[in-house]
Amino acid sequence: MNYAKLGAIGFGLWGLLHMAGAIVILSATLGTGPAAGYAIYGYDGGPLPGATGAVLAYFAYFLVLSGAVALGIAVKLNWSNSQAGLAVNSGLILAVEIGLIIFLIVPGYLSVFEALPGFVFFAMGAILGGVACMRDPSHV
């Protein structure tokens, strides 16, 4: 069993998931307006300040970038069992997931169940990538 490749797949799936989610948010926000983008998080109407659409679009842009970086690292570094790739992808994704927990799950805008796929892909990448690096620590 190639743990490095399985870990890279986990990190890659995390990246693709976040890129896809960002595209959904962006298409709703840019297509229909900010209220449609915020409806994804349970927004039920009412006036929105002018910058809310731009802020939501920026959030989605950040998700696309972090997903693309995680995917790129998975393909370039994690696939070949790089310890540096494991450290960078684990750190990047952990930082994003902590923000998700603090700003979306704790206040109740997103449930743990809704966030579960991202957590599973992150755990898959970090755990299996870590096992691969422990078994063959020669790849820096």
In terms of per-residue confidence, which ranges show pLDDT below 50 for 5 or more consecutive residues?
none
- Summarize the amount of helix as a percent range: over 70%
Shape: elongated
What is the string of helix and strand elements?
HHHHH
Strand composition percent? under 5%
Number of strands: 0
Radius of gyration: 17 Å
Largest sheet report:
none
The helix count comes to 5
Structural class: mainly alpha
The averaged pLDDT comes out at 92
- Could you tell me how far the N terminus lies from the C terminus, measured between alpha carbons in angstroms? 20 Å
What does this structure look like?
With 140 residues, the protein is mainly α. It has a domain at 3-21 and 58-135. It is 76% helix and 0% strand. The protein has helices spanning 3-31, 34-39, 52-76, 83-105, 112-135. Helix 3 (52-76) runs antiparallel to helix 4 (83-105). The longest helix has 29 residues, at 3-31. The protein is elongated and about 55 Å long. The mean pLDDT is 92.
Summarize the structure.
The chain is built from five helices and no strands. It has 140 residues and is mainly α. The chain starts with a helix and ends in a 5-residue tail after the last helix.
List keywords for this structure.
140 residues; 5 helices
Describe the secondary structure blueprint for this structure:
Elements: H1 3-31, H2 34-39, H3 52-76, H4 83-105, H5 112-135
Helix pairs in contact: 1-3, 1-5, 3-4, 4-5
